[in-house]
Amino acid sequence: MIDLRSDTVTKPTEVMRRAAYEAEVGDDVYGEDPTVNKLEEMAADLLGKEAALFVTSGTQGNQLAALTHARPGNEVILEANSHIFQYEGGAFSVFSGVQTRTIQGNRGAMNPSDVAAAIRGDDVHEPETSLICLENTHNKAGGAIVPLENMQAIYQIAKENQVAVHLDGARLFNAVIASGISAKEYASYTDTVQFCLSKGLGAPVGSIIAGEERFIKRARKWRKRLGGGLRQAGIIAAPGIVALRDNVERLTEDHQHASELAEGLLNIRNLSLEAIVETNIVLMNVKETGLTAKEFLLKLKDQGVLAVPFGPYTVRFVTNYGVKKEDIIKALVAVQAIV
Ligand SMILES: Cc1ncc(COP(=O)(O)O)c(CN[C@H](C(=O)O)[C@H](C)O)c1O
């Protein structure tokens, strides 16, 4: 099977498996796992933040940000198609007791004046706005890169209103490689940032959240409260170190493959693309084929290719390091066979 469902399906490399086997470990609840500590220091340094925390998933990282930045009764502003709003089970409301306020963005970028207008005042009837969440790259916008200027403008508005900013940077390094802007630069326009080791970077487990020391200290306690106190976690942190060290630059290949896939799809009748391809995600519209996305995907699976529905007529392909150039050609042949 050619698996284009997501970059979450990446499997650890031999180097990662060996690093896991050889990892020095200790009890991370006591802060004594040297491998986890090394990963956290590497990540904080890369992002230009005071500290970082190894967490079990991107979702956990985003939830810890809300639990730490916000409190029950607050309102959190986020983009209408953000992963936090669409794919995390309403966890902001469940765990943090906050009200979410969505703003429709353009290719994932919220208009700064819309954000400014959404920030609540001190009227007794209103919730307090305590957090603004950004997402870069933006998944449902087709892996779109949110412009740095947009992040900068929103961050300035947030600071003028004493509101925190969190970046869901699950695919931050895809943005870094595609734009040539450093992770440190992107992270300078957000108070906290989450990025995934387990997606395009290829680690088997985990994400990082990073921010000020005092934020990370409070987030670590929230992680413990959620049963996320890790013990000899160096075994799963070691592949994360390999991912950060070896797998960032190669994301270019995934982007190249996504562009080749998109180009090929444009030459197939009754198909269209829903977004320009900037990184590793391709959103294809199949409505003109007379099939729904789910029907199309069943036929595609019969042809040996996996992808996921991202709307009634939207099929999402995500390239990753398990997908080679010849797989892209085979995937195009499979799609052609259906329409
Ligand atoms: C922008 C963003 N932020 C956070 C997460 C959550 O990461 P995990 O909790 O899966 O590690 C994801 C995962 N995205 C997954 C995928 O794209 O296949 C699914 C949709 O959950 C994400 O795309």
TrEMBL record:
- Gene3D superfamilies named in the record: Aspartate Aminotransferase, domain 1, Type I PLP-dependent aspartate aminotransferase-like (Major domain)
Q: Residues in domain Aromatic amino acid beta-eliminating lyase/threonine aldolase?
A: 3-288
According to UniProt, the name of this protein is Low-specificity L-threonine aldolase
Q: Residues where N6-(pyridoxal phosphate)lysine occurs?
A: 199
- Enumerate the SUPFAM superfamilies for this protein: PLP-dependent transferases
One CC-aspect GO term: cytosol
Q: Please list the GO terms describing molecular function.
A: L-allo-threonine aldolase activity
Species source reads: Aquibacillus salsiterrae
Any one GO biological process: glycine biosynthetic process
Keyword Lyase found: yes
EC annotation?
A: 4.1.2.48
Belongs to which family?
Belongs to the threonine aldolase family.
| Organism placement in taxonomy | Bacteria, Bacillati, Bacillota, Bacilli, Bacillales
Per UniProt, the keywords (alphabetical) are: Lyase, Pyridoxal phosphate
